[in-house]
Specification:
Blueprint: E1 2-7, H1 9-12, E2 20-24, H2 29-39, H3 44-47, E3 58-62, E4 65-67, E5 81-86
């Protein structure tokens, strides 16, 4: 089973400039991100906060639908796509 994670430009520096990562044999969103971090340990600096939770500025889009960051136990299926986006604040 393969789930594709689309990596935005804010993550490129941590993943050798790649735009996509294929997570294999993952059953949940959280396992997909664990797989990403196993391959690219530095990506954890922007994905996780000091408590080990997904950083509040991270937005997860699973198959085109926003998924709350506290739903990392959500099941994934072969062919699913996850987009990682970052909220931008300002005024």
């Amino acid at each position: 089973m393969t789930v594709t994670i689309t990596l935005n430009s804010q993550l490129e520096q941590y993943v050798d400039g790649k735009k996509f990562f294929e997570a294999k044999d993952c059953a949940t969103l959280g396992e997909c991100f664990q797989s990403l971090e196993e391959h690219y340990p530095d990506v954890g600096r922007v994905l996780w906060d000091e408590r080990g939770h997904l950083a509040s500025q991270c937005l997860l889009i699973l198959n085109g639908k926003h998924t709350p960051s506290n739903k990392l136990e959500k099941p994934v299926s072969d062919g699913d796509t996850i987009e990682v986006m970052f909220a931008v604040g300002g005024g």
